[in-house]
Amino acid sequence: MENTTDTDEAGIDVSAPVVSRHSVTVTASADTVWRILTDIDAWTTWLPEIPYARVETPGPLAPGSVFRWSAAGMEIESTIVQVRPRERLVWRGYGDGPDGVLGVHVWALTPAGDGVEVSTEESFAGPPVDAEPGPFQEGLDTTLARWLERLKGTAEAVAAS
C-alpha cells in the first residue's frame, strides 16, 4: 500500500443529508485489521450482505484505484481517495450511477491498548437521499455497526489463530 502524497485530510461530506459514525475496539494488530479491510476482493467472505467486490485497478490500493461492488441492492463504483497504511482508508463512489447515491467512506485505525480502535464514518448525498433521507440514515447506521462487528470478529479470530 502506498501513502498518499497530499497533505489534505480526506473526509466525508459533513453537510450531506445522511451522515453516520461508529467505532469499535478490536483486540488484534493494526496490520491484521488493515489486511482484512483492504483485501476488497475478499469482503464477501466476512460481509455476507456484499454479493461481490472486485478491485479493477491493478497494483496496490492507492489514490485513484477503482473497485466495483454491490450492497443494499445498489451497484457501486468507488474510487480510493486516500491510503495511509494501518491508519486511514477513504473512498468515494456512486451507487446506481451519478444520479444515484454518492457515498464517501472513511475507515480510521488508532492504537488502543492491546489492539486498535476502528472508526468508520460515511456520508450519503444525491437525489434519492434528498427525496427520502430517513430510510437511508437508518440503513447506513445499521450497516456500519454491523460491518464493524463483523470486522472485529474476523480480525480477532485471525489474531487468535
Question: What's the arrangement of secondary structure elements?
Answer:
Blueprint: E1 18-26, H1 30-38, E2 53-55, E3 66-71, E4 74-84, E5 88-95, E6 101-112, E7 115-125, H2 127-131, H3 133-160
Antiparallel strand pairs: 1-7, 2-3, 3-4, 4-5, 5-6, 6-7
Helix pairs in contact: 1-3
Describe this structure in words.
The protein is α+β, with helices and mostly antiparallel strands and 161 residues long. It has a single domain, classed as START domain (Alpha-D-Glucose-1,6-Bisphosphate, Chain A, domain 4). Helix content is 26%, strand content 37%. The chain contains three helices and seven strands; from the N terminus they run E-H-E-E-E-E-E-E-H-H. The protein has helices at 30-38, 127-131, 133-160; strands at 18-26, 53-55, 66-71, 74-84, 88-95, 101-112, 115-125. The protein has a seven-stranded antiparallel sheet. It is globular, with a radius of gyration of 15 Å.
Could you give a short description of this structure?
With 161 residues, this protein is α+β, with helices and mostly antiparallel strands. Helix content is 26%, strand content 37%. It has a single domain (18-160), classed as Alpha-D-Glucose-1,6-Bisphosphate, Chain A, domain 4, CATH 3.30.530.
